[in-house]
């Protein structure tokens, strides 16, 4: 074979080897890119062996430099067959033994010893010869300006003449290894940080849940007993004291609920449901929650819902109601005079199959917001102006929570406001919708006179009545109304607002009665007192003047409809049960009703007994102050209904419920169990239901919810 052919064959062999080494590096880098950080050690060890075998090295390793202690330590090592491991002997090696290595690596240069036997006597030769090394090559591992360590290869069996290409490719591996290690460290740090953050969130949630439980337990007594006290015989001064205590307790409960909601949303624990919801019912229920606050401040509350709006849409009704109550609560808080309005608008999306945009708007005529204050509105624990916190109170979380909930519903709360003129907050929900048939007019009312000083309120009533083909006339005060009635008395119904200037609704009705008394030939219209107040003065005036009906503002469409229907057919009254029959039925129901209360706090036990006894005076109530006594009482008494506190000594409510359900499997009986807990988290409710409880009441106990559960659970 000629020299040229030999050279060509050698070049071909070298090229082939270079390509193979490149492919190995590509394979290693691919493995590292898709690597789970926890597999770093296994992959580093594997890649060291893979490269060592390819370059026919007998040992491959990684050292880390520690410039604080000025030492180097062997962290990874791969050894060929029958080659001794040196990793344990090469820990915390003083860098003074290898100054040439360190100096070269700091310059980002390769350090190698082609033939160890040719070295002069000294520390380096003393380190390498005992390991049987004949050839050595090391590659610096640097990250930015920091020298981290080096990758090395040893040839023990024979001297190895390494090529320049081989060196460059192994250097690429060293640089790649640095990047992979740093990425793995970063990912490991992020995973650890995430786990620590999640652990902190869990701890925070558990702390808040426990604190909520501890605070709600005494609050249960404060709210419950002040509620009961307000229904007892008290002097005006005593009633005011009790009312103040009750309002303060409810305020504290509101703060606790805000902080819990904020924590749940931050921790990602709050889920949004999509349920078919009656938009009219939702708006009217929201109005019920806040309307008495507007009545106390004597401001108008308007509920403006177009008559042609679709009746049903898909939404989370609880969370939507929470947003609206928060917005309305703020509007009422910052409005001293004028009005607060909840409006709902609808726009169908063209081209979409029964899908539309529902816009909810809360408008007020309150203090408004300056341009400087607007950026602070949606910040946690802050209000637009520090003085508002002192004057109006609150956590500053209401709007933040509302915005978070809105974002979970794929929308955002926007607002417009002018200082001293009021504000408007609004948001739009996109949802499928379903229309329902409008109720047919089933009453003989064709013309109504509306007497109300608020023009917007008159417009809303006029639109509602127009939908039932009822014509209307309007008056802004008593003088206008009486002037109108002098000329035209052909009205079936007169709706009179209570709060009006010059002459209130009662005085206006008294004058209207006098006017019609002078003209007995004219049919007297039915009169509806339209009031946001509900006190004894009105009740006595209603009886004295023979007022036909009273409606609470804002007008509920359903209530107004049924009120007109009832007035139109006022002669048709339901047949009442004979008194003795009612008494017999009530006594039978109460005397046969057997209730077991399991509650370890005496104050809560007394409160529950008092509320239940007020509803069912003849019912038998059995007390149990821990879970074991509850089980014993169940066996003995066979109650119709059980109220089960969750946290109790000896056996908690979950354990007691489990044992009762096991006993029922043998007997074939079933007893409704109502969970009582100060834990307000959704997970607590689910845990109770999973344990076999049927109903869930959160402390402080709401009397109305308790009464509702009693009705449902007892079936009486």
Automatic annotation (TrEMBL):
Its EC number is 2.7.13.3. InterPro entries: CheY-like_superfamily, GAF-like_dom_sf, HATPase_C_sf, HATPase_dom, His_kinase_dom, HisK_dim/P_dom, HisK_dim/P_sf, Sig_transdc_His_kin-like_C. Residues 447-568, 594-714 form the Response regulatory domain. Residues 183-210 form a coiled coil. Residues 210-433 form the Histidine kinase domain. One of its GO terms (molecular function) is ATP binding. It is an enzyme of class 2 (transferase). Keywords: ATP-binding, Coiled coil, Kinase, Nucleotide-binding, Phosphoprotein, Transferase, Two-component regulatory system. It comes from the Bacteria. PROSITE patterns: HIS_KIN, RESPONSE_REGULATORY. The modification 4-aspartylphosphate is found at residues 497, 645. Pfam families: HATPase_c, HisKA, Response_reg. It catalyses: ATP + protein L-histidine = ADP + protein N-phospho-L-histidine. At low DSF concentrations, interacts with RpfF. This is Sensory/regulatory protein RpfC. It comes from Cecembia lonarensis (strain CCUG 58316 / KCTC 22772 / LW9).
């Amino acid at each position: 074979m000629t020299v040229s052919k030999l050279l060509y064959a050698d070049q071909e062999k070298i090229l082939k080897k270079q390509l193979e080494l490149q492919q190995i590096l590509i394979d290693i880098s691919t493995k590292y890119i898709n690597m789970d950080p926890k597999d770093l050690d296994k992959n580093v060890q594997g890649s060291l062996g893979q490269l060592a075998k390819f370059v026919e090295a007998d040992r491959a390793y990684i050292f880390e430099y520690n410039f604080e202690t000025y030492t180097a330590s062997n962290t990874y090592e791969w050894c060929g067959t029958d080659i001794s491991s040196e990793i344990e002997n090469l820990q915390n090696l003083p860098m003074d033994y290898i100054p040439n290595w360190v100096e070269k690596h700091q310059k980002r240069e390769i350090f190698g010893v082609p033939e160890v036997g040719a070295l002069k006597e000294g520390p380096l030769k003393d380190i390498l010869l005992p390991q049987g090394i004949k050839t050595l090559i090391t590659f610096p591992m640097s990250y930015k300006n920091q020298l981290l360590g080096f990758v090395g290869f040893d040839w023990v069996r024979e001297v190895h003449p390494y090529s320049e290409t081989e060196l460059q490719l192994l250097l690429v591996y060293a640089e790649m290894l640095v990047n992979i290690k740093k990425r793995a460290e970063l990912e490991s740090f992020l995973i650890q940080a995430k786990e620590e953050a999640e652990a902190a969130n869990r701890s925070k949630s558990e702390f808040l849940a426990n604190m909520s439980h501890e605070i709600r337990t005494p609050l249960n007594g404060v709210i419950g007993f002040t509620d009961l006290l307000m229904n007892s015989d008290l002097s005006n001064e005593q009633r005011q004291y009790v009312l103040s205590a009750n309002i303060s307790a409810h305020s504290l409960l509101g703060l606790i609920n805000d902080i819990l909601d904020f924590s749940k949303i931050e921790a990602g624990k709050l889920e949004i449901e999509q349920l078919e919801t009656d938009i009219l019912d939702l708006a009217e229920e929201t109005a019920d929650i806040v309307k008495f606050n507007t009545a106390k401040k004597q401001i108008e509350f308007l509920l403006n819902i177009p008559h042609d709006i679709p009746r049903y849409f898909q939404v989370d009704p609880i969370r939507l109601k929470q947003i609206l109550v928060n917005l309305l609560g703020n509007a009422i808080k910052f409005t001293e005079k004028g009005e607060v309005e909840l409006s709902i608008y609808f726009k169908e999306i063209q081209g979409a199959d029964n899908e539309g945009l529902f816009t909810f708007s809360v408008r007020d005529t309150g203090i408004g917001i300056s341009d400087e204050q607007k950026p602070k509105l949606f910040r946690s624990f802050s209000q637009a102006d520090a003085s508002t916190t002192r004057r109006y109170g609150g956590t500053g979380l209401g709007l933040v929570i509302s915005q978070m909930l809105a974002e979970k519903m794929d929308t955002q709360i926007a607002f417009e406001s002018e200082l001293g003129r009021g504000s408007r907050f609004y948001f739009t929900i996109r949802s499928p919708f379903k229309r329902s048939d409008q109720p047919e007019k089933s009453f003989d009312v064709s013309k109504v006179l509306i007497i109300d000083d608020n023009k917007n309120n008159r417009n809303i009533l006029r639109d509602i009545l127009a939908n039932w083909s009822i014509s209307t006339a309007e008056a802004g005060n008593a003088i206008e109304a009486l002037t109108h009635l002098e000329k035209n008395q052909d009205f079936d119904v007169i709706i009179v607002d209570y709060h009006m200037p010059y002459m209130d609704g009662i005085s206006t009705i008294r004058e209207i009665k006098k006017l019609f008394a002078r003209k007995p030939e004219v049919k007297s219209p039915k009169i509806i007192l339209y009031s946001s107040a509900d006190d004894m003065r009105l009740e006595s005036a209603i009886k004295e003047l023979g007022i036909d009906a009273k409606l609470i503002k804002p007008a509920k469409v359903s209530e107004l409809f049924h009120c007109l229907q009832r007035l139109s057919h006022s002669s048709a009254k339901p047949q009442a049960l004979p008194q003795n029959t009612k008494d017999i039925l009530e006594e039978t129901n109460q005397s046969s009703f057997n209730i077991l209360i399991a509650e370890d706090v005496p104050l809560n036990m007394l409160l529950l007994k008092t509320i239940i006894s007020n509803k069912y005076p003849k019912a038998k109530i059995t007390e149990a102050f821990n879970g074991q006594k509850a089980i014993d009482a169940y066996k003995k008494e066979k109650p119709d209904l059980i109220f089960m506190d969750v946290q109790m000594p000896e056996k908690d409510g979950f354990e007691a419920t489990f044992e009762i359900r096991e006993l029922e499997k043998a007997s074939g009986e079933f007893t409704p169990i109502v969970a009582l807990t100060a834990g307000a988290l959704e997970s607590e409710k689910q845990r109770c239901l999973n344990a076999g409880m049927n109903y869930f009441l959160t402390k402080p106990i709401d009397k109305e919810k308790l009464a509702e559960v009693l009705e449902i659970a007892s079936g009486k």
